[in-house]
Amino acid sequence: MVRLLSDTNMADSQLVIDVVDNGGQWTHREWRMLRYLGVDTRILSNKIPLSEFREVDGLILSGGAARVGLTGELGNCAEYLQLDIPILGICAGHQFMADFYGGNTAEAPKPEFGEAKITLVDTGGKLFQDTPKIQMVWESHNDEVINVPPGFKITAYSQSCKVQAMENDRETRFGLQFHPEVDHSEYGEKIFSNFVQVCQSAKNLI
C-alpha cells in the first residue's frame, strides 16, 4: 500500500493537482486516484484559458480519442505546458507533450490494446521509483511517440512500443503511453503516488 498524504499535511497545505480532460474514457479514474492520495483535484476542460486556472502544484493531461495526440491540437494544452510546475501527460497527453517539445508521434506499427509488459530503462526515473524492472500495464492506443524531444529520455519500453514512458532532464515533465489509472496497471497507484511526491518536492522548493 502506498503512503497517503497525512491529515495534517492536507489541512495545512494540501497539494493541488488538476486533471485536464482531453476526452479520454478514464479521466475520472485519474481524478479519483488523486483524491484517494489526498490531493485537492478538479477535472478541467482543455478549453479553459490558462488565465482562469487556480494556483496548482501539478497538472495531468489526460488521454483522448484516437489521433487526438497527432493533430497538433489538444485544446489549450500548449498554453498549459508553459506552467513552471510538474506535468504528467497520459496517452494522448503524452503524445502531445512529445510533439510540443520537438519529438515525433506517428501511427503505431502495432497498436496496443489490453495488457502489455513494459521494461524500465535503468530505474525508470522518478515516476517508477520503488517499482519492479518489468511490470504489466494497460494499453489503449493507435498512435505512439517514436522520438522523444531534446532534453527528454526514455524511461520504459515494451516489445511493440519503444517509448512507453519518458521524462525530461529537469524531472518536471513526464509522459506515459499506457494508462496507470486503470486497475490492470499493477503499479499504477504507486506511479501516481510518485508523481504526487514530485509535485510536493517542487512545492517545497518555492
Quickly describe the structure.
This protein has 206 residues and is an alpha/beta fold.
List the helices and strands and how they pair.
Elements: H1 7-13, E1 17-22, H2 27-36, E2 43-45, E3 58-64, H3 77-80, E4 87-90, H4 92-100, E5 104-120, E6 134-147, E7 152-158, E8 165-168, E9 173-176, H5 188-204
Parallel strand pairs: 1-2, 1-3, 3-4, 4-9
Antiparallel strand pairs: 5-6, 5-7, 7-8, 8-9
Oligomer: single chain
Low-pLDDT windows of residues? 1-11
Structural class: alpha/beta
Query: How many alpha or pi helices?
Result: 5
Biggest sheet character: 9 strands, mixed
Residue fraction in strands: 25-35%
Give helix and strand order, one letter per element, not per position: HEHEEHEHEEEEEH
Spatial gap, N to C terminus:
29 Å
Please state how the strands of the largest beta sheet are arranged side by side: 2-1-3-4-9-8-7-5-6
Assign an overall shape: globular
Mean pLDDT: 89
- CA-based gyration radius: 15 Å
Tally of extended strands?
A: 9
* Secondary structure: helix percent: 10-25%
